[in-house]
Amino acid sequence: MHWQTSRFLVDLRSPQVMGIVNVTPDSFSDGGACASRDAALAHCEQLLNDGATILDIGGESTRPGAAPLPLSEELQRVLPVLRHAVTLGVPVSVDTYKPQVMQAALDAGADIVNDVWALRWSDTPGGLTGRDVVARHGSCGVCLMHMHGEPATMQVSPMDGDVLPQVLAFLQAQAQGLRSVGVDAARICIDPGIGFGKTVAQNFSLLARQSELLALGYPLLVGWSRKSSLAAVTQRSLAAAASLDMLDRMVPSVAAAVLAVERGARIVRVHDVKQTVQALAVLAAMQA
Known about the structure:
With 288 residues, this protein is an alpha/beta fold. Helix content is 40%, strand content 14%. It has one domain (2-287): TIM Barrel. The protein has ten helices and ten strands. The radius of gyration is 17 Å and the shape is globular.
C-alpha cells in the first residue's frame, strides 16, 4: 500500500511517524513551544533527527473550546515554517481546515492536506471548500478526519451510542465525495478523530475495533498523542487526570500508537517521535 502525495509516493508497508509541529501559542499539549519561527524550524529538524518520516505543520489550535483564528494570522504562522520544511526531504503536511491556507501551502510546496473538517468547511455558504482546492491540485495527499460538532463545542455535547458505524459512514461518504470530483483513491487516507467530540469510552472503542475501519480500503492515520482520554484511564481520579503534565502522557501515548499500528494504522501522528519510533521498532522485531 502507498499514499500518493505531491512530491512523494509514501510506502506504507512500514508504519510512518508523522511529527507534530504546532506553530501556536495555545495548542492543548505544547502551546507556545514552537510559537516563534526559529523554534518551529529547529523543531522540524529535531523531529527528523528523532525519526519522523512526515512533518505536520499547523497554525491554529483545534483543542476542545478553541476559538477560530483569523486567516491572515494563520498564514503568517504557517507559511514561513512550511517553506523551510519542504526543503528537508520528507513529505510535509499542512494541518488546516481553511481552503485559502490549503491553497497557499500547496503553492509553497506542501505535499498533504490534513483537515479536521474533512474538507467541508467554507467561510461563506456555497463558497470555496477544501474539496475544491484538493480536487484542482491534482496530486496532493489528503487526510479526511471525523469530527463531531466543532472544536469550540465538540466536548460539551459528544456523540451518542456506538460511534464506530457513525464514523465509518461519515468517512466513507467524504471519501466517495472526494473521488466523485476526480481525486484518485491513492491520494486519500482517513482518520477516526480520536478526542474530537467523543467520550473516553468511545475513543477506546474506536481503538479496540479499529480494524473495522480498514474495510473502507484507505490507509488509516491515527492521532492519540497526549490526548485527555489517556490521562483519564491512567490516573486514579479526575482531578489527577486534569492536572497531569503533558510530558507525563508520553508513555500512554506511545502505548496507544503501538496498539493502533498493531491494529492496522499506517500513519501515527505524534509529539514524542523518538520514543514512538523506538517502540515501533520493538513491535516490528516481534512481528518479524
